[in-house]
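F.,

This is the one I mentioned.
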């Protein structure tokens, strides 16, 4: 692309995003850009290192290339004829390597977190940080959060149920249990920047909870007891009518008699309101939904409008049950927010005491520094003096706070004095359908909205802006790309994944004649066993009836077929080696263990899992048992485990012989 033009590039998978960004940097340097005024933001350290290496490899090769080779390389990069390139441009190209090497701090090809760290270290006072602030590693961050959580839980437990904090703890534990509370609190702490932004807008926690009530459509004046009481007073089935109906049910068939029993529960004033409500709901609902048969024909004939009454009551109970669910959701969420806000406050205080920030703070504080802090204009001015070109890699996985940073850096490119400076550009590469980091706050739709915003800004400043689509895949074969396009032929899929379905770019394969195949197998579902499983089998042993075990065996059968000596690939006639087979899974779980076990049984070599939890390995467990027994000889269980392990090799009979002669309180040791 033209190095003087800003551009947003939508790049299909395998279309060479890294290559495009690398060539963009090189073209900017060729056009005379100062290496120190180019900022390239990547998503990972590996991507930054890879891009930096490719840039320096190219510039290094140019520094020693002969004229003909260098002319050809520049011509390919710029899309011009080699003979049109003058000698002075060759000299310029040969100097680029030295200029890039000698640039103070080097080329700024870095992750956004690394860039934010450099900004905060440059402006610590403006960011309300100490000059020598510490960046917390994951483990240190988890420890601080755990301490903050424990201190709040101790405070809430001591406060008791009459205190708002103690009541919040009771409500959260009642709603989700200890494990659910820990998980929800972890999610809230991870999203604390968004929570703080919500608090700033709402004013305080109570106002934020009121906003949430409006969102859920919950009337804060209601309480659960009032809703239960309302559900038990039916305008369709007043007491006299219900008594008459119950008598008719009791004198009818067995199904009607069951309805009479349910009605009796609902009418029994000695029971709790919840128990009565359970009986009342059972009159109208089964476990799967509304009852299809409210009464037999005999009873229905005696009460002509019974079906209509039942339908209206079912609808009323559904509506009130939704209101109860909304109220319960609001109560649990409000309790979590009160506790979570206290935990976040303690965590933030602990970081201030240590003069520390975590990785989320790097982005959040930098975004605030460039937008909402009083010194934002000054910081933008100082940074604006050092950046002329911004490149963004994997833009679809950039979250809103990171986009705030990019906008803060680039807004002067198209306004005021910055717009009058020549050749200031932003260049972003991404693909909405490849976004995989929504759990980290990625919002792929912002890629499209930012493209529109920057295009309008460039137009207003009379600056060139290009929207580019890369559809050529250098990696995948036509069969794979055709399968992807077939999935996106569904308008609903496009609507769910793309901000604008019209933005979808169909794939084109460079290797258009390369063979390939895509198979979609039916899902392995649980089997209904006619014979009970062996009750003596270990509970944690995978059986052939389990879906993940059947799938593992099916995959192993396919691998055995593909790697058989007489098998040849239809497209090439080449054999398939075992090292050619790659098994990808969505997450580590029982299937991975089953797959490794089955491949081992078949004698098929496998590289194994890419991550191993040491404390789950039986050999490590044996060593830990031995260590516990040595540290505490009275620990008979640990000693017995160590004695039965391959370390010592005893069996149950040996243990019985050793243990039989012990005294009443004598240790096995």
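My design for it:
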């Amino acid at each position: 692309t033209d190095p003087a033009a800003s551009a947003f590039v939508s790049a299909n998978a395998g279309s060479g995003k890294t290559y495009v960004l690398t060539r963009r940097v090189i073209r900017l340097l060729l056009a005379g850009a100062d290496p120190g005024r180019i900022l390239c933001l990547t998503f990972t350290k590996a991507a930054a290192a890879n891009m930096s290496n490719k840039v320096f490899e190219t510039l290094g090769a140019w520094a020693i290339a002969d004229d003909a080779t260098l002319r050809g390389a520049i011509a390919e990069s710029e899309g011009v004829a080699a003979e049109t390139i003058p000698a002075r441009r060759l000299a310029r190209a040969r100097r680029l390597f030295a200029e890039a090497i000698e640039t103070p701090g080097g080329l700024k090809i870095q992750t956004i977190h690394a860039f934010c760290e450099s900004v905060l270290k440059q402006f610590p006072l403006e960011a309300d940080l100490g000059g020598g602030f510490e960046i917390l590693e994951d483990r240190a961050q988890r420890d601080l959060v755990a301490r903050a959580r424990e201190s709040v839980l101790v405070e809430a437990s001591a406060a008791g149920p009459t205190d708002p904090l103690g009541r919040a703890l009771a409500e959260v534990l009642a709603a989700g249990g200890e494990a659910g509370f820990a998980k929800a609190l972890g999610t809230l702490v991870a999203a604390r920047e968004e929570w703080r932004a919500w608090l700033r807008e709402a004013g305080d926690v109570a106002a934020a909870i009121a906003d949430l009530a409006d969102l859920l459509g919950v009337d804060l004046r209601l309480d659960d007891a009032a809703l239960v009481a309302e559900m038990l007073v039916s305008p369709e089935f007043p007491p006299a009518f219900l008594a008459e109906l119950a008598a008719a049910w009791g004198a009818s068939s067995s199904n009607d008699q069951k309805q009479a029993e349910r009605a009796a529960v609902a009418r029994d004033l000695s029971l709790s309101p919840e128990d009565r409500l359970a009986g009342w709901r059972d009159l109208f609902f089964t476990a799967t939904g509304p009852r299809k048969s409210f009464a037999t024909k005999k009873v229905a004939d005696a009460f002509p409008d019974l079906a209509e009454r039942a339908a209206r009551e079912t609808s009323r109970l559904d509506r009130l049950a939704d209101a109860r669910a909304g109220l319960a959701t609001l109560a649990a969420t409000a309790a979590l927010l009160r506790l979570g806000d206290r935990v976040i406050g303690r965590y933030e205080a602990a970081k201030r005491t240590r003069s520390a920030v975590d990785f989320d703070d790097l982005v959040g504080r930098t975004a605030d520094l460039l937008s909402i802090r009083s010194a934002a204009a000054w910081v933008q001015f100082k940074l604006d003096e050092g950046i002329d070109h911004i490149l963004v890699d994997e833009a679809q996985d950039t979250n809103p706070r990171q986009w705030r940073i990019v906008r803060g850096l680039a807004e002067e490119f198209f306004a005021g004095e910055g717009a009058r400076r020549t050749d200031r550009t932003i260049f972003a590469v991404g693909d909405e359908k490849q976004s995989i980091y929504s759990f980290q706050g990625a919002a792929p739709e912002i890629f499209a909205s930012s493209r529109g915003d920057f295009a309008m800004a460039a137009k207003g400043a009379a600056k060139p802006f290009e929207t580019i689509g890369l559809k050529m895949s250098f990696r995948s074969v036509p069969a794979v790309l055709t399968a992807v396009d077939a999935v996106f032929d569904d308008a609903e899929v496009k609507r769910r994944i793309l901000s604008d379905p019209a933005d979808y770019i169909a794939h084109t394969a460079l290797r258009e004649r390369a063979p390939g195949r895509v198979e979609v197998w039916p899902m392995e579902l649980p089997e209904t066993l006619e014979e009970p499983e062996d009750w003596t089998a270990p509970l944690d042993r995978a059986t052939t009836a389990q879906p993940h075990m059947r799938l593992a065996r099916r995959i192993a059968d396919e691998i055995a077929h593909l790697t058989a000596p007489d098998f040849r690939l239809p497209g090439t006639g080449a054999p398939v080696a075992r090292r050619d087979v790659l098994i990808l899974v969505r997450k580590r779980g029982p299937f991975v263990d089953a797959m490794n076990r089955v491949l081992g049984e078949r004698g098929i070599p496998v590289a194994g899992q890419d991550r191993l939890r040491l404390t789950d390995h039986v050999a490590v467990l044996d060593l830990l048992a031995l260590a516990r027994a040595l540290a505490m000889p009275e620990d008979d269980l640990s000693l017995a485990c160590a004695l039965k392990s391959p370390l010592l090799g005893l069996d149950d009979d040996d243990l019985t012989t050793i243990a039989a002669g012990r005294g009443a309180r004598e240790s096995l040791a």
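The longest strand covers residues 6-11.

Talk soon.
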